[in-house]
Amino acid sequence: MIVSEKEIPKIVEHLKSQGLAALPTETVYGLAGNALKEEPILSIFKLKNRPKFDPLIVHIKDVSELNKYAIQPIPKAASLLTQKYWPGPLTIVLPKTALIPDVVTSGLPFCAFRIPQHPLFQKILRQLDFPLAAPSANPFGYVSPTNAKHVAMNLDVPFILDGGPAKHGLESTIIGFVEKGKALLLRHGSIPHEEIDKLVPGLLDETSSKKSPQSPGQLDKHYATRKKLYLIEDLKSFKIKETDGLICFGHVPYQGKNVFNLSTNGDFIEAGKNLFSMLHLLDNHSGINQIFALKLPNIGLGKAINDRLERAEKN
Length: 315
Ligand code: AMP
Ligand code: MG
Known about the structure:
The protein is 27% helix and 18% strand. It is of the alpha/beta class.
């Protein structure tokens, strides 16, 4: 059921008694449960039908919580990142302490941490004495939810807290400190690769690496619509049929009810915010049988958006 901010006291009680709630974050909506207990974590995996090898991100309220949950000392580069981007759409992976159960991290000795920026998520965290594990609130592999309705259409959760449309609309950028002296980019996300590169010299892009366990869960097939999606490099020879949907970007010679422009001005931030909601619209549009998506320039947030589209195409 979709509920408003007034129901936060009930949500807090529900989370304290090991229940789950879908909560707004600035990236996408998350399916949250107590990160320190096995039972809610197992319920998250079950409800999402998520494979157990795909670890969860742990959401903390304050950077000082890392003293309890991450092995000290924290690498200097990780501290630089948390100072600049927390609260916000950056996740860091660090060696974990025993307080974080192994089910959260799929048995890995590392845990992914983030402080979310959404005021309602923060309000809830402040009333809890445990952090929240919260993967995206969608069935595994499907398009991530960027508003409360997307969650309600696809998951049966007792509480879905409406916090408006997600500000960024793309998942967090993940940086791993899982090998001594190295910083690894594990997932493209809401903070562009180039920005992090400036702050962390020597950042290694591991996003296309198949090497487990560094990027578990970064499966080829993901973020997929139920309708078939085809990625196109350019629109030169593209002819749109009445039953085709088109996702495009920037100034293009196409308009109409089946054309969804991520940003007519070519603004990557606007495009990121629109991506998943337009995929949801196209997937539920009764007149459309298949979806074509124009590849974005592979720079800045264009990389994160292309990554989602490429995985959606592989389904
Ligand atoms: P999400 O499903 O958006 O919450 O993202 C979770 C993703 O974060 C996983 O699919 C992994 O790619 C990454 N992740 C989470 N925990 C870890 C970890 N302990 N080590 C490496 N990557 C992780
Ligand atoms: Mg997800």
